[in-house]
Queue: 4 jobs
Job 1
Amino acid sequence: MKENQYENCRKVIQEQVREQLDLSRELTDEEIRELIDEQLLQESRKYSLSLREKRSLGKEIFDTIRKLDILQELIEDEEITEIMVNGTDGIFIEKAGRLIRWEKSFAKRENIENIIQQIVAKCNRSVNEASPIVDARLENGARVHIILPPVALNGPIITIRRFPKEPITMERLIALGSISEEAAEFLKQLVVSGYNIFISGGTGSGKTTFLNALSQAIPNTERIITIEDAAELQLLDIPNLVRLETRNSTAEGTKEISIRDLIKASLRMRPNRIIVGEVRGKEAIDMLQALNTGHDGSISTGHANSTKDMLLRLETMVLMDEAMQMPLEAIRRQIASGLDIIVHLGRLRDHSRKVLEISEITGFSEGEITLRTLFAYNEKTGMLERCNSIMHTEKLQGAGYA
């Protein structure tokens, strides 16, 4: 069948199915498929559809009505790690570390808007012209970021980052060369011993993946509370786990629940450890205060270009809260007292993701936070190597490491 005939047939069947949908109740997937099959049977004689074309049409129509239209094909491809919809201008994907343009695209802006509303509705969020930016997630745990016009000039923008079905373990990261076996064992001992760890890195450097892998060392006898903008952490084998997610305000009067609100609430829930998916604003002060009030072994992530830059960013984020009016020295003391280790990740030119540096916060001296590099990535050898200074690190003796 010619391409234009195939497209006409798809539109006809799709409209017929939509007309027959019983909007008074929630239809099951099986009922939708039966409606599609009935229409396919009727139209197959008119368009002389082959068995292969029937199957293809059936899936496309089902995906349009029940799933995420043409994006469903990409979401089901486990080799694709990122999907970027630039309005009707085109769709780009990341596959095997390479960014390429997909051959398909949305013909109408309305189709993208329908998908967006479907995504946000399933995780109790809302997005519109008045509030055009939202973070959400798909049923498979993939992270979704959405920006609507008028903020997005070339139409509705969707960015989907998917994670593996099975969380990547530390053993897998060692096999991939992302971290050395010695450094992985060292971090495992720190997690078990209750050291506060902060994971820094740029966009796409693998912070969430590494946090998941690191969390596997947490003893399963502890009570863990995770706090995220959009729930995506995959913590394994922790029976006493509480997962909290932020909520946007809505036009109907639903109140916003922020990261700050959730951190404050978590302190009343008897946590052993608090894991904040990402710190990016005023909530930094609440996290630091939690770390300084007996919640040892907590872990969080943030965007930065190095371990030193992460400290500067934390200072800046605390200063964003004008109500606190804390002097810079007090902020630095809070950071030095609350955090023990910063693990910095990076994405190299060959698209591989690696641990580039592990640094210890050794204290506060002469108005500055002092850092000591324990492991550093050697570009010549392509390995994360132990630094001699770790032999003399007194603060880490409690973890049984020398």
Job 2
Amino acid sequence: MGLRDRLAEALKGAMKAREADRLSTLRLINAAIKDRDIAARGPGDEDGAQRAGVPDEEILSILAKMIRQRQESARAYEEGGRLELAEKELAEIRVIEDFLPRQMTADEVEAAIEAAIAELGAGSIRDMGRVMAHLKARHAGQMDFAAAGARVKARLA
């Protein structure tokens, strides 16, 4: 079952179970995916031609971005003393994480970085873009690429 199908099933389940918070988050996810689908259309696609939409890898990057946004918001709310809003953001993160693959441990991330560097023969900071593209292609949704980028940069420097 594809990611879109899993999201659709979860949306139906949340409606039937009357889980308002979960339903709200799932609708936000669907809206973000539809926005990306629309942005991905070419100028000649408005004639009603059916498209499959963005691939699952791009949906995973959308979900990862949504999680980062909510983590930043939760942090800001906590600093501002708005704990109820921070908790709402954290609850949304838990719903979004249900659709992401298992996150890699720090050791697994380090091993993936070493393998990518070795496979590509990267030796300098100029190769960082190739290494990051390789990691994103192989481990979409499984690691925090901002943190991985810092590790790759330190390794290649």
Job 3
Amino acid sequence: MDLLGMLKDQVSGTLAGQASKFLGESESSVGKALGGIFPALLGSTIESAKDEGGAGKVLDLLKGMDSGGMDDIAGIFGGGASGVSKLMNQGSGVLNLLLGNKSGGMIDNIAKFAGLRGSSASSLIKMAAPFLMKMIGSHVMKNKLGASGLMDFLGGQKSAVKSAMPSGFASGLSFFGDAADKVGDVAKGAANMAGGAVKGAADMAGGAVKGAAGVVGDAAGAVGNAAGNVAGAAGDAAGTAAKAGGGLLKWLLPIVAILAIASYFGLKNPVGDKVADVTGNVVDKAGEVAGDAAGAVGNAAGAVADVAGDAAGAVGDAAGKMGDMIGGAFSNINEAAKGALDKITFAAGSAGSQMMDYVKGGFKGDANFTFRGLTFATGSANIDAATAAEVDNVAAILKAYPDVKVAVTGYTDSTGDAGKNVKLSKDRADAVKTRLVTNGGIAANRIVSNGLGSANPVGDNATPEGRKANRRIEMKIMK
């Protein structure tokens, strides 16, 4: 069963189309993001279920999932904010189990990888996670899998995850070091076989010479066992060192000690000489294996550095292209409106001030702005008249640059019912759009509005200050 292939065929396309409208992002960017989200989430699931205890927790999560209606993605998004809010709440539970407090790193990776706002990347991961869990849960129920069965099933997905995972997304996933572990296993196996050969040769020699030679043979066998055990430990260390990128050769010191012991016995009779020779060969071979492993690690580290450099360059190029695209939208200027715009004094920190700084700065940085002075009547979408000028000033900017399009997104704090918060945040974003259209004379098709409720907080909801910061309206330049 190819989980990622099934997700791509059955979920990604429809989800990208629906989520892009909801988030105010391009469908191509959302589709690209899902191409990174599903491998990353599946990889985290494999990591979480790598032992019986972790697999049991994943099974408990699957049993508690409410997958009703998830076969109709368009229906979820078409049914209003409550359906999307329910989906995202389930996704939050999945992320808490799989990532805990590390979800921020994955969100940042997705945002940079696909060119999304951080808030959009966060919401999209929460939307996507339940679909992955539903697919895993269906297989578990159909085949009546327990913890060990789930582990085996997920283990079979490792190869596909490795192939699909974008560069830089595999941090913390131990199974990406399986190849390095196998190097260590090979070294351990070879060393143990060699140790066994030493013991066998010594035992045969002991039988032939009898008496004292037998005693020496027994001692040589003990040396062989010790050599096998120490070499096995060196093999284990080779796997660990391959993951860490170095330090493997220090484990050869115990093997050198074994060689010294063998040499000591070699001084006592001819059988010991043979034991020392064979043991020396074992040490040489173990050294060669360890050296080859260390060299492979060095090459892998170099390749990783090259990939990281290429990825950084790609991110820089993407950022440059985004800036160029936005700059192109600002190149068409309504001179009369621009003249009026030049006479406006923007309040420090206001959305209009942030937007003008972005334009004057050559379209560098994040094209996402927050309305700092805009307030609403408590529990409603009615803009306080005393603060409406901040919206009107943004309208003046949009009027001066008629090709610019924006997405307006509303947020609330976490107080109260989640579904009602999503509705309130959407209503407030719609109110901003309405004022831009009716009072500012901006064409409605230049503005997309949506609300995400308490998602993506920027402050601590446990404090009054944090809740105030979370009750906000953001605006992003789309082009």
Job 4
Amino acid sequence: MRKTLWACAILSLFFLVSCSKKSDTQNTPSPLTYTPPAVSSSFAKGADISWVTQMEASGYKFYDKNGQPQDLFALMKGLGFNAIRLRAWVNPSDGWCNTPDLVKKALRAQNAGMKVMIDFHYADSWADPGKQPKPVAWASLDFNTLVGTLHDYTVHVMDTLKTAGVIPAWVQVGNEVDDGMLWEDGRASTHMANFAALVNAGYQAVKSVSSTTQVIVHVSNGYDNTHFQWLFDGLKNNGAKWDIIGMSLYPSTSNYSTLDAECLSNINTLVSRYGTPVMICEVGMQASDSSDSRAFLTDIISKVNSVSGGNGLGVFYWEPEAYNWQNYGLGAFDSSGKPTIALDAFGGN
């Protein structure tokens, strides 16, 4: 009897433990899966990787998610990107991003099966909202000669690309031209008509080589409708032409939801006001906040794709491949040279 009771006790305990384990399993949520945002087939999922040749020359390598070394252009294609943006500098002191370097990268992008955007800074180095310096060789030119020189330089770069077999899908005439370009002659707040003339010179130059290439005027802070209307009203009133309005957007982990909503509102207003589509030419977030960055990218890609009439054309991440490079912290690769989960938002593997 004792043996029977003991056996029954053991069986009862086993049953209780088994039920407890089964109950625990049932109450444990399954791992969450991530689904990238669905976009139209024509939507540009892009990246500016202009640093790539300079990084490669410095010994940097790039790796897929499994840690296998891979050419960066092929890697980006596998991550879901279908477009590459490349900056053009007139006469950089170290040679990077000059015309020969630009053409090499453009060919690599095209050979990897991606469209190409050219970002003319019209400077020897960085041009952005805080600085729009003239190239050294253009510094003493009178304004009419400056306009002609910008036109001829743009034609030369476009012709060089075309000869190499590359026709850019998009071209930016200026980079983050919040207050114009080629200061002081082209500063928008004091010489809007001059700025419009420079934009038109670039526009006409691009179209003279490739009528299908779309011309972008690119401004930072895509959430700032007041500034966009001031600038584009000024350009419109002075006869400037453009095909696409370009934006930058660099939110933080704490404000991206607010800024994304304001950006979408701005896009819808601009599409209605000027009758031209909009593209986000630059985004970025701290590489160390990859989960928040993925959430941000998922949200902004979805919002831009939602613009009615297909007038939200795409989103480009700025230099995602940067890791341990020039102290730039807004890339999307980790310290071992592998992409973070942020780039899952672009829909690749």
